[in-house]
Amino acid sequence: MPIKVYKVADIIDGEVVLSGTRRFREGDIAAVLTNLRPPADPLPESAWKFSLIIGEGVGETRITIDLPPILSRSHSEALPIIITTGISENRPTSLIYFRDRLFMSERPAIRDSERAEVTLRVKKAIYDEEAELSSLRAAVANLEAAIEFRRSGPQRDPIPEDVKLLVWARDGGQCVRCGSQQGLHFDHVIPVAKGGGNSEANIQILCQTCNLKKSDKIVML
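RE: above sequence
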């Protein structure tokens, strides 16, 4: 049976900031966080703070709780870490940390196969979030380039080196149309003359022959 995971918080400047999920109550998350046992070799930077709001309206009170160190000095940034098993809504549940985010599972990951599944689901959720943000940046960059083009005409700025490296790795160092590795060029999918920008989403690798065939046409591969 699949184990669903839900992002419950982001770690921002050393504070646990709830993500707004309604799957788990704020008090449940606070109970799990404040009852964690520090690892044998705690990482001081992981002694975060957590703000809990008690009451509503005029009687609302915010208290800040200092949490014990959650991570070990030996923890790897490359893998999600299942920190503990706590209780939420009278059910046991797992707390998972990865890339400055905290997730909770709908039930505990006890078996190795369940831990592997939780790890994959957390990584997928974060990679999807980061890919969406990257796509959003690219879309905004292209829109801003189009607006600037309409305002002042085409501006052929050099393609940044970091964008070239990303595109080279993404396209495998070969022409995306014919696979040639000779006479390669960095080509704008949407030409500069038509308002295209220098984001990685608008750059592709073409060989000289394919580039000449394309001319200034917009070709989406």
